[in-house]
Structure formats: C-alpha cells, structure tokens
Amino acid sequence: MMKRAYIFICLLMTTLTAVSQVGQTSGGVEIKGSVKGKENYVPISGVEVSTDKGEYTKTNSLGEFKIRASIGDILIFESPEIETVRHRIISGEDVDVLVEGYGKGISKKRESSASKTRSVAMDHQRLLDSANFYKKTSLEKSIDFVAQSMEPLGTSGNKRELAQSLRTLGEIYLYHKQYDLAIDNFKDALSATESNRTKLLLGQAYTLNGQNDLAIRTLTSLIEEKSMVPYQRVELFEALGDANKGNGKIKEAQGYYKQGLVIAEKNQISPKIIDLNSKMADAFASEDREVEAEGYYRNSLDLSKKVAPERMIQESERVADYYNQKSRYGDEIQQRKKSLNELKQLSPPSVPRESKGVSGSDTITSQRINYKIASAYIAQDKLDEAIPYLEKSIVEADKDDDLVIQKDATRKLSEVYRNKGDFTKALESYQDYVAVVDSLYVRKEQEISRAARFNREIANTQNRISSLEQERELAQSKYSLAVTEQQLYEETSKRQKWIIYSLIFGIAMMSLTAFLYYRSDKQQKLANNLLALKSLRTQMNPHFIFNALNSVNNYIAKSDERSANRFLSEFSVLMRSVLENSEEDFIPLAKELELLELYVKLEHSRFADKFDYEVVVDPAVDVEAFQIPPMLLQPYIENAIWHGLRYKEEKGFLKIKVLPVTNDMLEIIIEDNGIGRKKSAELKTSNQKKQKSKGMGNIKKRIEILNDMYKNRVDVSISDLNGDHTGTRVSLKLKKQ
Predict the structure, then answer these.
(1) H or E stretch at 313
(2) pLDDT by residue (tens digit) across 204-224?
(3) Which residues, by range, are in coiled-coil regions (predicted)?
C-alpha cells in the first residue's frame, strides 16, 4: 500500500514539507522529483540536491531534479531560501518537496510583480544551464550565456542569483585553465553570498594557480563546517593535500589524503577512493618510500579495474610513469604494453589524462604509449627493440595528426639509427623530422593567432561582465539614493550626508574603473609582447635550420659522404641546443658563445679557403653573469660570412670580441674585413633587392620588444670597418639583468 510521508521544518516564515511515495524495491535507482511551493506550486530552481554517498545535482528552472542513489541513502536538500532537510530513500518512487509559505503573503497588488520576479528567476537558471552545457565545447557561447544571465540583475536580480552567475563563470574559466579569472569570479561570488561550494572551488583554483598558501588558508576555514556532505568533505581534504604537497609539505599532504580516504571508503565513493590511493602513492614516491608507494599504486590499479577501462588505463599509465622515474624500465615496458592492449579495445582509442573537469590537451593515446615504450628500450640500450615502437608511434601520430609526438618520435628514430651507425636511414629520418618541424611551425603560427584572438574575446567578454556588475551596483545605488531622497524631506542633515557619501562613492568607483582599465591595458600589452616574441622565436628556428642545411646539401652534391656525416653530426649537436633554448627569452652568455663557436666552425669547414676566424673574450668579463636572448648574434655572423667574406677575392678574417664596458655592461663586437655593405648591396640581384632579410628583420623586432619589456638592455649599431666602405663592424652592448 502506497504511503505518503510529511517532513515539517520550521523556518522564519516558511515550512518545508517532503512528500515521498514508498515502494518495496531495493538497490541502485534513479530518483526523480521536484521542489515547489506548497500553496501555489511555484518551481524553486537552484536547490542543491545530494546524497550522503556523494552524488550531486541541482533543480532546474522547472524545480525538477534527477539523481542516482541506493535504497537506504539519505537525500539532502540545501538552499539559502529554505532550511536544509534530509530524507532517507526507502523506495524507487518519486520524491516531491513542498515548501509551505513559499510566495505566501503577497498581496494582489503585488502579485504581478512577484510573477515577473519568478519568471526572471526561471530565465536566469535556464541561461546558467545553457552555460554549463556549452562549457566544454564552446567557451565563447558559455560565457555569453553567463553574461545574459547577469544583464537583468541590475533591476530584478538578487545576491543569490548574482553569486550563482559568478560561480558558474568561475567554473568555466577553471575548466579552461584561466585560473586568475576563475579566482576573481569566485571571490566576487563569495562577496555576494557565502557558500561552502564556492570556497572549495576557490581553494582548488588557488592550488592550480600555484598559490598554495592562499589555498590552505581558504580551505582550512571549511574543516569545522558541519553542513558539508561527505563528497564535499572528501574534496576538501583532497584539495588540502594537493596544496600542502605543492608547498613541499609531504607529511601534511599524506595526513589530509588519509582523512579524505577514510571518509571516501566509509561512504563508498569509488572515484575518490581511487584518486586518493593514487595521490598517496605519489606522495610516498616523492619521499623514495617505494614499498608504501607500490602498495597504494596497487590499490588504485585494482580498484580502477572495477570501475571502467578508461580509468584503469589512466592508473596503469601513472604506475608506468612511476617505474620510469625509478629507472625500472622492464616493469615500465610490461605495464605500458598492458595499457596498449586495453586501449585497443576502446573506441575512440584515447583516454583523457585527467579525471577532473579541467580541460587539457594531454591524452593517453597509442602513439604516446608506443613512444614511451621505445624510450624505455633506448634507456636499456636495446635499440633494435625500440625501432618498431618508434615506427608505430610515427604512423599512428601521422594518422591522428599528432605533430608533437610525430616530431619527437621521428627525431628519436634518427638518433637511434645514428647510434647504430646506419647514417643513411638516420639522414632520411632527420629529413622527415625537419619536414614535421616545418608543419609544426605553421601550426604554431596558427595557434598563436588563435590564442591572440581568444585572449581578446575573453578580455572583451570579461569587460562586458564587469560593466554589467558595475551597472548592477549603480542601479542599486540609484535605488538607494531615491529612497533616501524621499526620506530626507524630513531630515535635511541626513540628506546632505547621503549626497556627500554618494559623491565619494562615485569618485571611488571612477578611480577604481580607471585603475582597472589601466591594469587591464598594461596586462594586455604584456601578453601581446609575449605572443609576438614567441612568434618571432618560432620563426627564427626554421629560418636557421633551412639556411644551415644548405651546407649539408653542398657536401651531398659533391658526394663527400664523410664530410656530410661529420657535418651532420656536429650540426645535430648545434640544433639540439638551439631547440632546447627556443622557448627561453634569455640564456647565459657563455652558452650563446659556445653555440656561436660551433656555428662558425661549421661555416668555416665549408668556406675554409674564404676566411679564418677568432673568438676573443676579455678575462675581465664574467660571461656567466650576463644573460642574452638566444640566437641574437648568429644572423650578424651569418651576414658577415655570406655577404662579406664569401665574395672577397683574397682570404678574409672574422673576429668576435667580448669586452667590458662597465661592471654592469659589456660590448660584443663582430668584425669582418669583407667587401662591405655597399659592395654587397651592389652584387644583389633585382629580385634579392625586393626582399628584406628575414633573419635581420626578426632580430630587429625582437630587440625592440625585449627593450620595451626589460628597459633597454640591448643596443646594436652597425658601421663600416674602413673608410673605403670595406669591412663591417657590428657592436652590441648588453646590460646585466
């Protein structure tokens, strides 16, 4: 027989009634229901519905919800508008919650206004639902829906709805790794309405942004909160563990992970049990406590087998990474081969690296696993076993258009063939590597362009949201001012004070707006400079590669295999160093000089009959104390050889000098006694005259950007060496950082 149960909870002006239908089913079920006003059945959206086992959802704009639960679980309903209520599930029937007094007491004169307010609230929740729907697929649409949800808040909204919008916006930015923006919006949401969930998200954002002390301070305040459901409490201790681990406090991190693990095991929250076992293993591994680490890794791996193949592969790869760190390459290879077999059973054959809702391009794919297996074989000097896995990785990466793995695998395959002494295949692989680098360079340019456009769109949308927030505050201020003016007819002195306060507030708001605009403009300028600098560096590398490969082509054309092999070996050393430094704004001057000497040596091996050279470093110069942008000097030396010394009839001379100017400045001089700039320009063809040197143009732009960012650290001047316009002298003055 069906039974109806009522749960009454006294509020300030309302009473909550829960109505549930009782059946005789047991086991896992999907519970459906709604939350509405008892008298008028008005839907109540945004009510947080959770179970004591960690499941979580919210009511939609119609007040309805769906949640997975088991017979015997406790349903928990939470909202700022009602008192928290708990209800034990005893069947699979629907659960309807009725709030007595919700909307009661509204006079007929105000009923239309109340109806309009409820309509706005429903629209607000629909827009936030849409924002969450597009969060993973379209950042622009997602943020636009949040902005739309905030537009009417200037006149009809309340702080609870504002906090919901700001928290949703923070979650969107958190998913897309825009941690600074996420933190700002979570803080604004907390200013509007205090919320345990928002504080937890803020702490997680601080940790991801590397601000571990702020994360610990924010999260510690939640430990004594009694209203948190078990799943949230597990997340709290996990986040505290992550923050302490980020600060290097491994013992404290282990303690928090252990507390979270106890709660997760008690409430059978399987995903978190796996996560915390894995993180405990990582913590012990960082202390070289291998026995404890392997025990927890084994637990996470065994538990993941019961959840889903994707999760098992994630944990399997984490264990393999641990074996790699400990140089246990045999165990690593065996573990990754198991992952590879499991991965082949999936469709599509890839698994996200992270199980959290944070986006990331790093996924577990067969080409990545094959590449890591090959690397493990190479570490054991088993080159023949490594080659098939590298070839598989290249083929699969090409199929999936994964240029990064294709580049790394092709380069490593070339190195394996070179170490085996098969220089023909090494050269073929290296030529494939150069082609992939060229494709990757084109893609990087496109990514930089998209990133710049993406940053502009984010800035514009965030400015729009900031404007909406300011409009809301101004609208509220106008409303307060109107009410105050009506009352000030009776109290003249109070009116004067309100006017003064309003003026001060307006000035403060204008000052704050001006400051925020100045800071935003400054940050945007810095971001544009960094993007431009990175773009120029990525242009320099292919430019240098293709110019230098002309030397290899020359030896091949002459059928001088020994010289080509020797040149290719030395050139690979130079290229490895160049690529390693390609992401840096500055490198030690000593390293730059080593690269230059190797470059000049390579060019001299080709034009030995055209010039000799000398590199002189004054003993008074501490080259280790100075930093210089990588590849800054090479184009000047290249010009000296190719446009000055190469066309000289008799043998020329190239001299590179490093001299002290002051304690904080040195001068690098590049001199050649070649034909000079004027004669070189006359020798150019008409087509060459139309084209400007890409290398020199890039160097000029890099110096301008670096000087703008670091306050004129580099100064370059070029002049004729002799009065008859022969020879060239390049002087570069460099300040200490």
Answers:
(1) helix 309-325
(2) 999 999 999 999 999 998 888
(3) 444-478
Which residue type occupies 191?
Answer: S
Q: Which tokens go with 689?
A: 């005259």
pLDDT digits (tens, 9 = 90+) for 10-48: 333 333 333 333 333 334 688 888 888 877 777 888 888
Q: What is the DSSP string of 42-86?
A: -B--S-EEEETTS-EEE--TTSEEEEEEETT-EEEEEETTEEEEE
Contact 726, 705 (CB under 8 A): no
Domains of the chain by residue range: 29-99, 120-194, 561-735
What CA–CA distance (Å, rounded) separates 568 from 561? 10
| 127 or 494, which is more confident | 127
Strand partners, 95: 20, 33
Question: What is d(CA 640, CA 651) in angstroms, rounded to the nearest whole number?
Answer: 13
* The pLDDT of residue 25: 35
Please tell me whether the overall predicted TM-score, pTM, comes out greater than 0.85 for this model.
Answer: no
Classify strands 15-21 and 9-10 as parallel, antiparallel or unpaired.
antiparallel
How high does pLDDT run on average in the chain? 78
CA distance 235 to 641: 63
- Distance in angstroms (rounded) separating the CA atoms of residues 177 and 716: 39
Strands 714-720 and 728-735: antiparallel
CA distance 69 to 434: 56
Calculate the dihedral angle through the C-alpha atoms of 196, 201, 202, 204, rounding to the nearest 10 degrees. Answer: 130
Among candidates 575, 16, 170, which has minimal Cα distance to 162? 170
Chain Cα centroid distance, residue 250: 24
> In angstroms, what CA-CA distances link 581 with 90, 188, 585, 589?
64, 40, 9, 12
3-state secondary structure of 247: coil
State how far the Cα of 676 lies from the Cα of 685, in Å rounded to an integer. 17
* Residue in this structure with the two tokens 């395959």, named with its chain if needed: 413
- Is residue 418 within 8 A of residue 433, CB to CB? The reply is no
The CA–CA distances, whole Å, from 314 to 220, 291, 377 equal 30, 21, 22
**CATH number listed for the domain at residues 561-735:** 3.30.565.10
Q: How far apart are CA 530 and CA 705, in angstroms?
A: 9
Candidates 81, 124, 87; CA nearest to 99 is 81
pLDDT number for residue 136: 82
CATH classification code of 29-99: 2.60.40.1120
- DSSP secondary-structure letter at 154? G
For 171-183, give one letter per residue: b (16+ CB within 10 A) or e: bbbbbbebbebbb
120-194, CATH topology level: 1.25.40
What's the rounded mean pLDDT across residues 64-85? 82
Look at residue 463 in the predicted model and tell me its pLDDT: 67
> Does position 162 have pLDDT exceeding 60, yes or no?
yes
pLDDT at 669 over 90: yes
Q: Count CA atoms within 13 Å of residue 534 on its CB side.
A: 16
Q: Inform me whether the pLDDT recorded for 156 exceeds 70.
A: no
Angle between helices 329-344 and 309-325 (to 10 degrees): 160
Helix and strand counts by DSSP (H, E) for the chain? 23, 19
| Ramachandran angles phi, psi of 97, nearest 5° | -110, 125
User: What is the rounded CA–CA span in Å between residue 187 and residue 446?
Assistant: 34
Taking a C-beta distance cutoff of 8 angstroms, is the pair 548, 727 a contact? no
Around Cβ 256, how many Cβ atoms within 10 Å?
26
Instruction: Give the helix/strand (H/E) hosting 149.
Output: helix 139-150
Give CB contacts under 8 A, 24+ apart, made by 72-75: 75/31, 75/49, 75/50, 75/51
What are the CA-CA distances from residue 267 to residues 78, 231, 242, 624 (Å)? 20, 8, 21, 58
Any residues with CB less than 8 A from the CB of 405 and at least 6 apart, and which? Answer: 365, 367, 368, 371, 393, 397
